[in-house]
Design a protein that fits this description.
The structure is a homodimer. Chain A has 14 helices and eleven strands. By secondary structure, chain A is of the alpha/beta class. Chain A has one domain: TIM Barrel (Alpha-Beta Barrel). The first copy, chain A, has an eight-stranded parallel sheet with strand order 6-5-4-11-10-9-8-7. In chain A, helix 1 runs parallel beside helix 2 and helix 3 runs parallel beside helix 6. The two termini of chain A are 36 Å apart. At the A-B interface, helix 1 and helix 14 of A face helix 1 and helix 14 of B.
Chain lengths: 377, 377
């Protein structure tokens, strides 16, 4: 017997059935954010387990950000000082265990360092990464040490995170600290760069470091919007601001992941599962070759109001609505989300039966169940 | 070495330490309600696991109620027809497994059938238990079959639920169906009973059935408030309406469990952990012998807006505040809950680290965490 899965043919010996199925998109992601709130390992493992039920296959681990730096980096051990507490840290062994746990379930881990803008916490251990004590991000573009640290992180990453991509961030860069801090402003002048050119210089130099460690790159869409033609051809542009960017990215020949915040951000509690379901990554992309450059999509569980107490019911069941769009052939997708309601409600009950705290379909994300009723309608 | 625990002395061989500790109250309960919403087995197991962290030792399983009858009763198999669906049922094997799972963790399971008032779902399989098709509860007091069914349930219970107590409910009995249904009204007249006497007759007959199966009895406080001196001396009166009943119960020589809804009902999302902490079961009970009749207390997680998606964060951390009051000697309890804040916040983070979705302390029950902060302050 032959089992078709993820574009591979898998022989299952002696089984009395055949499954012919394959995903529409190869990249079906869920972002978790362990900087705004730390997520304990059992919580991450439960999230990974639950992803398998909806055939999501990439855990985008937004490990560090402005608020905290929970991961151990042996090359620069003081980065870990940026953790909220010593109880809110991941050792290298922890991270490797998560990667292995995910891998056993067919899930790749996409690790992210979001530079230069979202990296304030790096300076807790290494203050020279800040433009100054009073102006703490973006990372100091004028300091060679900045790129040494990025190189060290990516070197350590390459021993843990074996997925072919690394995510380098690049979004929401406010360069005002660069122009107002005298030594950086001086450096800009000396090198004949304006702020915008310095931003490009930073992102491209970080890209080269990632390439040198064997990674292909994911960057948030601002990098494309600002200097797309300069990006490495090994870049996947990660859409988040809204619809429409994917068609420009693939028209330029780069690959794209779709996560537009108005439809696929799970922290937007007022975005309904119907909107998650209806969000089509190939909108306005008709050319077959260009369609193939949209490698998939990702729902994003940003961590501002999420921790171990409420992450599961904020992810589920809405992530499952997006997951169906990412898996199912376009022509077999429901044109009217009402055709999905019963099936998705049943799936959320199955998740509950498996111990996953998926919330009801009705109401906002993570709403309480309606009074006094069965789960299976 | 000797370990003092729950009034027993346990020898731990070759251990290099001594623990001297024992609970203030022997009964430290948590109610779960599987009628208003079905709770899948993995969810119940997780609740039991989490109870051990706060040294709660009785799972009060409010199995059935008006809304659904999820438990298999071999003696009267059609009772199971009152489940929401065939996916929302507990087999005898399921229930036995829960009892065993709890027992291994030092937790007794107190099973409840709440009669005669909260039993509408029984009639789905056996409509003759209803006064009439149009007036469906309380259970028909005039029908011998009613007591046969209760006897059958308690007989089946005695094979599964080995705790010395069974809970027979007895609260919120609206007897109007008895007086408006001709055949019951006729029976009342024939037996010279008014509604109130019929209620007493029902509760006492159910008590005798429980005693015949070797159980001592728990009943909700209305039974005591209405005819306390008639109750079996083996009754424990379960307070729920408000403070003050415990002192009357123990003055009459009966035992009491405290669960007053204004302080210890977890479905009251606006009751803060500080109020849970401050609720003293021995209020106004100064006599030592009477104090001993308060066997403990229980926090109640009623199921109207709770299912597998939100039960953990509605129980925790508030249940832990009550648990400390139930365990710790009175003189060692904090007089000002502010002395508890740091410790309880730390405990909630520990629960998260163990994969229990305990909510933050601030805000209402199951509030989202504040933005961008560590868990351990």
């Amino acid at each position: 017997m032959v089992l078709y899965m993820a574009f591979r043919v898998i022989k299952v010996h002696m089984s009395p059935w055949t499954i012919i199925d394959q995903p529409r998109f190869s990249y079906r992601g869920l972002l978790i954010d362990t900087s705004r709130h730390y997520l304990p390992l059992p919580v991450i493992r439960k999230v990974i387990d639950s992803m398998t039920y909806a055939k999501l296959n990439v855990l985008h681990w937004h490990i560090v950000d402005t608020e905290s730096f929970p991961l151990e980096i042996p090359s620069y051990p003081k980065l870990w000082n940026g953790a909220y507490s010593t109880s809110e840290q991941y050792s290298v062994a922890d991270a490797a265990e998560i990667v292995s746990f995910a891998q056993k379930r067919g899930i790749n881990v996409l690790a992210e360092i979001d530079v230069p803008g979202h990296a304030l916490s790096w300076g807790t251990g290494y203050p020279s990464l800040w433009p100054s004590k009073d102006c703490q991000q973006p990372l100091d573009v004028s300091n060679e040490f900045t790129f040494k640290v990025i190189d060290g992180i990516l070197s350590d990453f390459s021993k843990i995170f074996k997925f072919k991509f690394v995510h380098l961030g690049g979004d929401e860069v406010d360069t005002s600290c660069w122009t107002t801090t005298p030594h950086i402003s001086k450096w800009l002048k000396k090198n004949g760069m304006n702020e915008s050119q310095a931003y490009q210089y930073f992102v491209l130099r970080a890209q080269n470091l990632a390439l040198s460690h064997g990674y292909e790159i994911v960057n948030w869409e601002e990098t494309f919007n600002n200097f797309g033609n300069k990006l490495s051809r090994k870049t996947v542009v990660h859409n988040w601001l809204g619809g429409g960017v994917a068609q420009q990215v693939v028209a330029s020949g780069l690959r794209c992941i779709v996560s537009n915040q108005d439809k696929w951000y799970l922290d937007h509690l007022d975005t309904t599962w119907q909107e998650f379901y209806a969000n089509e990554p190939l909108t306005n992309i008709t050319n077959l070759k260009q369609q193939k450059l949209v490698i998939g999509g990702e729902v994003c569980m940003w961590g501002e109001r999420i921790d171990g107490s409420d992450i599961e019911q904020t992810i589920w069941p809405r992530a499952a609505a997006a997951a169906e769009r990412l898996w199912t052939p376009y022509d077999e997708l429901a044109k009217d989300p009402r055709q999905v309601t019963g099936r998705l409600a049943h799936f959320r009950c199955l998740l509950n039966q498996r111990g996953v705290a998926a919330a009801p379909l009705a109401g906002q994300g993570r709403a309480a169940p309606e009074a006094n009723r069965g789960c299976f309608w």
